Amino acid sequence: MNVRRRSSAAALAAIAVIGAAAAPAVAADPSPSSSPSKTAPSGLYGTTDPQYDGVWRQSLALLAQDTAGVMPSSTAVKWLTDQQCANGAFAPFRADPAAACDAKTPIDTNNTAAAVQALWAVGGHGDVVESALGWLKSVQNKDGGWGYSPGTPSDANSTSVVIGALTATETDPEKVVKDGRSPYDALLTFALPCAKDKGAGAFAFQPDKDGKLLANADATAAGVLGALGEGLVAEAADKADAASCADADKPTRERAAANAAAYLTATLAKDGHLVSALGGSADQPDYGNTADAVVALAAQGGADQAAEPLAWLEKNAAKWAAESGPAAYAQLIFAAHATGTDPRDFGGTDLVEKLNATGPAPQGAAAKDTASANADEKSAEKDDDSPFGVWWFVGVCLVFGIGIGFLLSNRAKKQQS
């Protein structure tokens, strides 16, 4: 396909995080090694070891800056483009971008899809985006979806983040088919019926070993956005309907999104936030997935539907973001954007300033949303242009449970009711 760059304002609307993210909702610092990297690559946001999340956090940082009207550093953008393999795919991190990718390079769909969304947003890299999209299409599964790694079974998170990359680049997911099945067909197979006693309306990450679907709040937030055809950045729906769950013989993707939003609303009602825990440890607030849920709820039923978890984040998430790094700040910016909240005054924290401080200084600001931009910023348009080893899964498990969003939850494949 020919990837054409729109004006920055139009791009913002079409790019409508896990979470990535992930989304896969989102892989934030700290990485499995929470100590600062002694050799942090030039241009990379965050100072912790990028082995597991370098491309993801960089993509979210650039996308969040664009969303907030900030023009990212060209050095930061180049760091991301240099990470791409010749076949178009991205791995979480390549220490030596000059070395060719080989069979041992852990390329994956989530980092590739996140990079697509970021690079489309900042503009000027149509060739990189087109190559990445081509690779994603080449590894689509026969059910129409995607797994985290090429050749692995499809899951709700990976399928959703790729849908986001497709729609961000004006590619209709309905037309990206394999054996007659689209990504939406695959995604709906992970939706639990409303009649189910536990987890009614939710999305499962993927079937368990017995073929059963178990509700997963992380996959549900990702699934809402995927079913709506939204990406990591989403706009609030015009409507303000309360989410409800209703079964249908053949539920549409919009119906599945509403059912899933009802599940999230019910799950959030107890504490105002989602929880996570590593095996054997007490439950703790899951900030990242809560931010993902805010974006999902706003996109499905309007900003008012996300008011309670948003208020909880505004009150409690600043310390988490400061400890976690750029992707965490990006997730909160996505939550603010989806609800029409000023990211420069998020519970008293300027999320944009904090994010900018984690990496190369941005080039400048381009006001694209007068409700959130500073009065002295001027509107501008960007240029147009056309199965890994055990160490990987061990590292991922160390990260999971910190509240970092759907990407790392996706890797860990944790089922939660």
Features:
disordered N terminus, globular, mainly alpha, two-stranded antiparallel ribbon, 417 residues, single chain
What is this entry, summarized?
The protein contains 15 helices and four strands. It is mainly α.
Instruction: Determine the structural class based on helices, strands and strand pairing.
Output: mainly alpha
**Number of helices, where a helix is a run of at least 4 consecutive DSSP H or I residues:** 15
Rg, Cα atoms, Å:
19 Å
Percentage beta strand: under 5%
Element pattern in H and E:
HHEHHHHHHHEEHHHHEHH
What do you see in this structure?
The radius of gyration is 19 Å and the shape is globular. The protein starts with 7 loop residues before the first helix and ends in a 5-residue tail after the last helix. Residues 1-38 and 366-417 have low confidence and may be disordered. Strands 1-4 form a two-stranded antiparallel ribbon. A two-stranded antiparallel ribbon has the order 2-3. The chain has helices at residues 8-14, 54-67, 74-82, 109-122, 126-138, 156-168, 183-188, 217-227, 253-268, 287-301, 307-324, 326-339, 351-356, 390-399, 406-412; strands spanning 70-71, 274-276, 284-286, 364-365. It contains 15 helices and 4 strands. Helix 4 packs parallel to helix 6 (156-168) and helix 10 (287-301) packs parallel to helix 12 (326-339). It is mainly alpha-helical.
